[in-house]
């Protein structure tokens, strides 16, 4: 395996013991819910992302268990919450993911840019894109028809009406002309944020940010034209209609809102002492030297694709030039996926094997899917153990899942796996979820008859030490 030597200066200063068992237990005894604290700060709000933990959670472990200059890793960084908090705390932040949108979000969050320059370019892009649609719509249509392969074209036609396609295509065309790669990334993220939203968005999908897209109808005029931004009547007869249909929004207007909002939270030049190291990487085979990390804080995916990131992310990634079929193939490689053909299953420790057996007795396929998940997490935790320095801590924040009515006890199984690989599991903390902020796939409405809601109201904080 090729091992990567991160281009950071080595921190040779001896530190006092901040990672003892009592310190970890003290952290876990504190309020880990953070419901009274908002996350509308810094660049955490640049883009929606399902099931991300509150920034205060990794920040607490970073503050208590490391010192400035230490190296903090998130091997499954998602939207980069740990990476950003480490960066802001003057730690050396390292993050990997295999999701292209996760990498884009994380990089933009920690990239300082000149706000005045960004504002000038963004406003210019909107003006030029509006003019392009107004004056050259036929040419733009022909261009977009040639831009995608057949499957990508079918996907776009199914999820985006023609008017929306033209405006998005015009914005994409103008963003591609920006030569500065960092600025272009910021603009692409603002564009993605107009598509993948907690509510609304410019596609024909509802509930996209919760990774459970379903196509809805749009409001039409008597002549059959799409009505953008028109409100439904509030009388009782239209109540059900409002939940079955969607008011489409103009990508131009939504991009301007997204762009200006993100501009407020843009990282100012000079913030953070160390440039974060963010790259594509598989958590099961990290390109890092052994014993090079001072702290790991990460949140693995749920088992059995309970949160299916790529189902949502492809809605914006396809506009950035990623073919839908390739994105689908990439999805098969995500931890927690359901593809079993050709997968190399690992032997599991006794407790975890017992859980898998219970699921298999009820549903053989689901049992194999769970076996795949715990095999993937075994490889991941083994890599975490390898790269972590002795005496240091790995924090794994995870939710459990229910398969065929059986709680798979993810936290206990991961603790079981970690202990078998050499980690000392100090303690497992528990925190309740703020459903609106955590953006779980079932949405914010409480329905305790729903299996997905029953299992997604709390999560666990597993603290390992390498001793």
Question: Would you mind describing this structure in some detail?
Answer:
The chain has 17 helices and 13 strands. By secondary structure, it is of the alpha/beta class. α11 (about 310-315) packs antiparallel against α12 (about 325-330), α13 (about 350-360) packs antiparallel against α15 and α14 (about 365-385) crosses α15 (about 410-420). The longest helix has about 35 residues, at about 115-145. It is globular, with a radius of gyration of 23 Å.
Number of strands: 13
**Computed Rg:** 23 Å
For the record, give the distance between the C-alpha atoms at the N and C termini, rounded to a whole number. 25 Å
Overall mean pLDDT stands at: 84
Give a short summary of the structure.
By secondary structure, the protein is of the alpha/beta class. The protein has 17 helices and 13 strands. 44% of the residues lie in helices and 13% in strands.
């Amino acid at each position: 395996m090729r091992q990567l030597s991160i281009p950071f200066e080595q921190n040779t200063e001896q530190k006092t013991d901040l990672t003892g068992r009592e310190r970890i237990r003290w952290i876990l005894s504190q309020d880990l819910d953070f419901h009274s604290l908002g996350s509308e700060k810094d660049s955490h709000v640049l883009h929606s992302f399902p099931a991300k933990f509150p920034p205060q959670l990794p920040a607490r472990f970073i503050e208590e268990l490391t010192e400035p200059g230490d190296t903090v890793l998130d091997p499954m960084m998602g939207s980069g919450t740990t990476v950003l908090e480490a960066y802001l705390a003057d730690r050396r932040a390292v993050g990997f993911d295999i999701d292209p949108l996760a990498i884009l979000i994380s990089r933009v969050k920690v990239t300082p840019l000149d706000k005045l320059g960004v504002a000038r370019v963004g406003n210019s892009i909107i003006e030029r894109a509006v003019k392009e649609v107004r004056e050259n719509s036929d040419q733009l249509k022909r261009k977009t028809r040639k831009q995608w392969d057949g499957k990508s074209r079918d996907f776009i036609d199914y999820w985006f009406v023609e008017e929306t396609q033209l405006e998005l295509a015009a914005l994409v065309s103008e963003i591609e002309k920006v030569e500065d790669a960092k600025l272009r990334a910021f603009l692409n993220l603002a564009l993605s944020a107009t598509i993948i939203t907690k509510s609304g968005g410019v596609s024909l999908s509802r509930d996209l940010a919760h990774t459970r897209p379903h196509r809805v109808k749009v409001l039409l005029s008597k002549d059959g034209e799409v009505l953008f931004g028109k409100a439904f009547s509030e009388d009782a007869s239209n109540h059900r209609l409002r939940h079955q249909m969607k008011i489409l929004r103009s990508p131009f207007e939504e991009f301007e809102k997204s762009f200006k909002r993100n501009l407020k939270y843009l990282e100012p030049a000079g913030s953070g002492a160390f440039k974060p190291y963010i790259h594509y990487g598989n958590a099961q085979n990290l390109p890092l030297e052994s014993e090079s990390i001072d702290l790991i804080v990460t949140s693995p995916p749920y088992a059995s694709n309970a949160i299916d990131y790529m189902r949502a992310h492809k809605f914006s990634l396809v506009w950035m030039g990623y073919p839908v079929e390739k994105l689908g193939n990439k999805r098969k490689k995500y931890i927690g996926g359901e593809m079993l053909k050709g997968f190399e299953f690992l032997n599991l420790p006794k407790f975890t094997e017992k859980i898998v057996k219970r699921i298999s007795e009820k549903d053989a396929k689901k049992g194999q899917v769970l076996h795949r998940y715990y095999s993937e997490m075994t490889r991941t935790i083994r890599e975490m153990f390898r790269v972590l320095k002795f005496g240091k801590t790995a924090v794994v924040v995870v939710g459990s899942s229910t398969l065929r009515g059986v709680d798979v006890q993810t936290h206990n199984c991961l603790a079981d796996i970690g202990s078998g690989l050499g980690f000392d599991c100090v303690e497992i903390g528990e925190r309740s979820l703020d459903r609106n902020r955590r953006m779980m796939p079932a949405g914010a409405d409480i329905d305790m008859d729903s299996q997905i809601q029953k299992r997604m109201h709390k999560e666990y904080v597993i603290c390992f030490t390498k001793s």
